[in-house]
């Protein structure tokens, strides 16, 4: 399979499918974000305007002047905040289990890996729905709290940002465990033995050797959690009750009730730009990290 | 004693050793003989099922590796890839919370000792294998351990570099005056570097002695066979100091025992004297001649199934003294023949 | 094997690990248990074992139709995606060529881009090109996402293959095609199978993309359930969710066992 033409032939179908059905649409989306919205939904293909991006930052007051409108910025800030919190929380929860898994005997390791991936492959919708059953008033946790006398008020957790957070952490936890586990498993055990040998106790071995050397996995996990969290749509809709708007729901609204496709496309494009920015930052950081190791 | 796998495999059995301080001590044996396990027990990475390990009278049993006055140079070096040369060497000192100025001066001393001056800011990936080896050495020596354990540290280096490092290690050991316990499967390495050698096989120590004792006076068949090249001949003791190797062919050797005993005799090929027919007591013919650069080895057939290898230095050039098929004779000096216990 | 002071045990990690495993499985177990609850309130009050809600789900014509749609889409998209991904993996595995990283990044794109962005981009594309939202649009969109999912395990399997095998086959007069058919494919089929299963699970589980591009009468099961859940909790959803969990868990187990047997 060394032949260049052969390779091109083998790659063409995959590249064509992704190119035509994803990359081309993304370009189209960028194009649509510069169009004027149609009178009753849709777009006017021939009329260009930057209004969607202006709308993101400003609104027109009664005198038709542009005034700064931070509503959408706030939604973005809230989403970024939620995604960051989720990423950090999953890291805190995931690291100990990844560490424990990595130092198990090999046979048990593959089994544990399987056990951790099963929820990961379980339908996202189902996983979120299960949390509704747990969190709703009259649900499992509520009943438990009331019957143990912990509280006599309804819990009122469901349809709150807290519920969204719980759901997001739960949904994306495997995304964090797996890359950290992989980097810990690859870690040369003799480096840790050498640290012990030179007088490092467990804490020092952990902070000076294991943590720095598992950085690629940790950063990878943070990215893998942060990116989908930022665009999360199902979890806020189901568990947050759509009360505090997130980017995902905002975009969806433009294609639903608001029927403002150009604005929706612009929002999606800004989200994409944010993520590309995060990824580039990661790539640069990673290169520095790799530079430090070489 | 050390057992692995739920007690079914005994990795070390009845090993009892006293290593003198400031000694260059080598554990020599084939892979799987238990030498690395013994080293890991001393370092504290594994625990023995029975018995004790003492360093300078201090019991190490139950102490984790980070509380033992023993440091290790790993086979793969295990130099921390995210730390500079300097940071690697300072690691153990930092763990012991030595003062900043002391760390700086120790690191400087160590860099000088292993001749890595000027490379302190480098990362391990920017160093050659030999240089990484030196970092590992300096790192292990920096905290002045009582004992330095070296787990086949030279096996990853190429031949030339290895010879250089052998001398270097020996020099270092003289300079720092620390007990070195060196593990290797390379008999040449063991012979050149060690003060004393313990030859191990299947979890036991077979012979303990100076390189000269081990090579010249092996007591076990395994030791004679494993170290250097040896002619091993089955023989029957016919009188005190006399052994019959073929009907009518007897040799003399030291070693008392019961008459009619079946024994194995070991003779180093370079100790056998090869001559024209009639010159020596054993008659044979040349089967094969192998030219080996510095030496030539003659394969001499005495009787069907009884062969001797004779090694001669090529003092007079590459020209062999005999040709295949030539009739020759062999003589075995009495002090060259070792009687082995099984 | 005993180890000195259990060096490799970091205190607390074991307890933390079990807590996390409990956290991961608790919601799923609660859901499965409640799906067999006889109570019609779907509250957490156990009123006896019953498969009643499965019967109710089976009687829901819309739901059954959405299951049919989901399975059709998943089967076709997975088949196309797996074949395409296998070809791509054959081209990229075990070789170094210029642009390899770019190609791999391109192939991973569907997984990197947030699904909501991909969903509206594809929606706009279909509207502009004039493809009716329905079965066809679903299959096309799902195919895009099955490619990277299937690609990764197949490539991993190929990477693990001794390159000398193909060379040995060529040496013994096999043409590239014969070597592929007789040597490579038989050796990587566990990878292909596990890639296909993961792709199938992925397609079956997709909510966001399907939500935007399924037209009237072509709702997939997750989209149907999504709209039901937004209306409120009904015990039927418990039953259907349990079925979805069973489907993905059994496929995953199969792929795990396959992997264990062939590694």
Short structural description:
The complex is a heterotrimer of chains A (about 290), B (about 350) and C (about 260). The two termini of chain A are about 30 Å apart.
Characterise this structure.
The complex is a heterotrimer of chains A (294), B (342) and C (263). Chain A is mainly α and 294 residues long. Helices cover 73% and strands 5% of the residues of chain A. The mean pLDDT of chain A is 86. The longest helix of chain B is centred in the middle third of the chain and has 18 residues, at 159-176. The model of chain B is unreliable at 1-8 (pLDDT under 50). In chain B, helix 2 (85-95) packs across helix 3 (100-113), helix 2 packs parallel to helix 4 and helix 3 (100-113) packs across helix 4. In chain B, strand 7 (147-151), helix 5 and strand 8 (179-184) form a beta-alpha-beta unit. The two termini of chain C are 25 Å apart. Mean pLDDT of chain C is 86; it is low at 1-5. At the A-C interface, helix 1, helix 3, helix 4, helix 5 and helix 6 of A face helix 1, helix 3, helix 4, helix 5 and helix 6 of C.
Task: Spell out the key features of this protein.
heterotrimer, A: 294 residues, MetI-like fold, two-stranded antiparallel sheet, two-stranded antiparallel ribbon, 73% helix, C: 263 residues, mainly alpha, 2 domains
> Which range does the strand content of chain B fall in?
25-35%
Question: What is the name of the CATH topology of chain A?
Answer: MetI-like fold
- Overall, the morphology of chain B is elongated
- Termini gap of chain B: 23 Å
Mean pLDDT score of chain A, rounded? 86
Percent range of helical residues of chain A: over 70%
- Could you tell me the radius of gyration of chain B in angstroms? 25 Å
Secondary-structure-based class of chain A equals mainly alpha
Model regions low in confidence, pLDDT < 50 over at least 5 residues of chain A: none
Relative strand content of chain A: 5-15%
Helix content of chain B: 10-25%
State the name of the first-level CATH class of chain A: Mainly Alpha
Largest sheet of chain A: 2 strands, antiparallel
CA radius of gyration of chain A: 24 Å
| N-to-C span of chain A | 32 Å
Task: Write the CATH architecture name of chain A.
Answer: Orthogonal Bundle
Query: Could you tell me the mean pLDDT of chain B?
Result: 86
Number of distinct helices of chain A: 13
Number of strand segments of chain A: 4
How are the strands of the biggest sheet of chain A laid out side by side?
Answer: 1-2
């Amino acid at each position: 399979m060394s032949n260049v033409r052969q390779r091109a032939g083998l790659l063409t179908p995959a590249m064509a499918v992704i190119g035509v059905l994803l990359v081309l649409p993304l370009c189209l989306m960028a194009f649509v974000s510069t169009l004027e919205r149609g009178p009753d939904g849709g777009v006017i293909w021939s009329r260009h305007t930057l209004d969607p991006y202006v709308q993101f930052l400003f609104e027109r007051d009664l005198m038709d002047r542009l005034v700064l409108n931070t509503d959408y910025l706030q939604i973005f800030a809230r989403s970024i905040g939620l995604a960051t919190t989720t990423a950090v929380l999953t890291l805190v929860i995931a690291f100990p289990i990844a560490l424990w898994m990595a130092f198990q005997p090999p046979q048990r390791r593959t089994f544990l890996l399987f056990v951790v991936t099963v929820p990961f492959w379980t339908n996202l919708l189902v996983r979120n729905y299960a949390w509704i059953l747990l969190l709703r008033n009259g649900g499992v946790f509520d009943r438990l709290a009331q019957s143990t006398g912990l509280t006599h008020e309804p819990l009122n957790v469901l349809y709150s940002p807290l519920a969204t957070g719980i759901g997001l952490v739960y949904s994306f936890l495997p995304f964090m465990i797996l890359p950290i586990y992989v980097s810990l498993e690859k870690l040369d055990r003799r480096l840790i033995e050498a640290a012990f040998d030179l007088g490092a106790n467990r804490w020092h071995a952990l902070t000076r050797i294991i943590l720095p050397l598992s950085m690629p996995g940790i950063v990878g996990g943070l990215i893998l959690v942060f990116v989908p969290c930022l665009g999360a749509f199902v979890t806020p809709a189901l568990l947050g009750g759509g009360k505090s708007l997130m980017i995902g729901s905002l975009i969806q609204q433009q294609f639903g009730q608001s029927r403002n496709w150009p604005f929706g496309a612009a929002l999606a494009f800004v989200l994409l730009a944010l993520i590309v920015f995060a990824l580039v930052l990661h790539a640069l950081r990673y290169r520095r990290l790799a530079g430090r190791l070489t | 004693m050390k057992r692995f796998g739920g007690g079914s495999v005994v990795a070390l059995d009845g090993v009892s050793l006293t290593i003198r301080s400031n000694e260059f001590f080598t554990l020599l044996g084939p892979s799987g003989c238990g030498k690395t396990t013994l080293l890991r027990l001393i370092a504290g990475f594994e625990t023995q099922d029975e018995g004790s390990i003492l360093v300078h009278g201090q019991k190490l049993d139950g102490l984790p590796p980070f509380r033992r006055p023993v440091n290790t140079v790993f086979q793969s070096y295990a130099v921390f890839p995210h730390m500079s040369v300097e940071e690697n060497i300072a690691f153990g000192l930092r763990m012991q919370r030595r003062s900043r100025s002391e760390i700086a001066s120790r690191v400087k001393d160590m860099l000088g000792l292993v001749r890595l001056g000027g490379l302190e800011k480098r990362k391990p990936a920017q160093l050659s294998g030999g240089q990484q080896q030196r970092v590992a050495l300096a790192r292990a020596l920096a905290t002045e351990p009582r004992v330095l354990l070296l787990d086949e540290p030279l096996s990853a280096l190429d031949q030339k570099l290895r010879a250089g490092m052998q001398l270097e290690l020996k020099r270092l050991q003289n300079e720092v005056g620390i007990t070195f316990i060196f593990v290797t499967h390379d008999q040449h390495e063991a012979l050149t570097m060690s003060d004393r050698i313990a030859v191990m096989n299947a979890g036991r120590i077979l012979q303990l002695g100076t390189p000269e004792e081990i090579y010249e006076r092996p007591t076990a068949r395994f030791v004679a066979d494993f170290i250097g090249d040896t002619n091993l001949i089955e023989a029957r003791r016919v009188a005190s100091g006399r052994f019959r190797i073929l009907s009518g062919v007897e040799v003399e050797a030291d070693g008392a025992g019961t008459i009619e005993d079946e024994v194995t005799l070991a003779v180093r090929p370079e100790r056998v004297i090869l001559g024209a027919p009639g010159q020596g007591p054993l008659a044979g013919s040349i089967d094969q001649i192998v030219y080996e650069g510095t030496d030539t080895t003659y394969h001499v057939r005495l009787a069907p199934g009884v062969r001797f290898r004779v090694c001669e230095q090529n003092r007079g050039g590459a020209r062999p003294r005999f040709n295949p098929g030539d009739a020759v004779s062999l003589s075995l000096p009495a002090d060259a023949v070792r009687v082995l216990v099984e | 094997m005993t180890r000195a002071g259990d060096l490799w045990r970091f205190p607390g990690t074991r307890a933390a690990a079990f807590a996390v495993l409990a956290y991961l499985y608790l919601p799923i177990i609660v859901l499965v248990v409640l799906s067999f609850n006889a109570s019609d309130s779907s509250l957490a009050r156990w009123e006896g074992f019953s498969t009643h809600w499965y019967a109710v789900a089976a009687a829901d014509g819309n739901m059954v139709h959405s299951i049919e749609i989901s399975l059709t889409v998943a089967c076709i998209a997975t088949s196309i995606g797996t074949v395409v991904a296998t070809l791509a993996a054959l081209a990229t595995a075990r070789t170094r060529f210029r642009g390899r990283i770019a190609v791999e990044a391109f192939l991973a794109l569907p997984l990197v881009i947030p699904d909501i962005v991909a969903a509206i981009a594809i929606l706009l594309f279909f509207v502009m090109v004039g493809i009716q939202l329905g079965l066809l649009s679903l299959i096309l969109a799902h195919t895009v996402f099955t490619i990277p999912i299937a690609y990764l395990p197949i490539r991993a399997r190929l990477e693990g293959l001794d390159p000398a095998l193909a060379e040995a086959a060529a040496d013994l007069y096999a043409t590239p095609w014969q070597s592929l058919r007789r040597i490579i494919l038989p050796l990587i089929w566990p990878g292909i199978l596990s890639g296909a299963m993961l792709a199938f699970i992925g397609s079956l589980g997709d909510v966001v993309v399907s939500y935007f591009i399924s037209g009237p009468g072509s709702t997939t099961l997750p989209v149907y359930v999504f709209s039901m859940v937004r209306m409120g909790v009904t015990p039927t959803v418990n039953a259907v969710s349990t079925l979805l969990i069973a489907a993905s868990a059994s496929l995953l187990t199969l792929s795990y066992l396959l992997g264990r047997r062939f590694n």
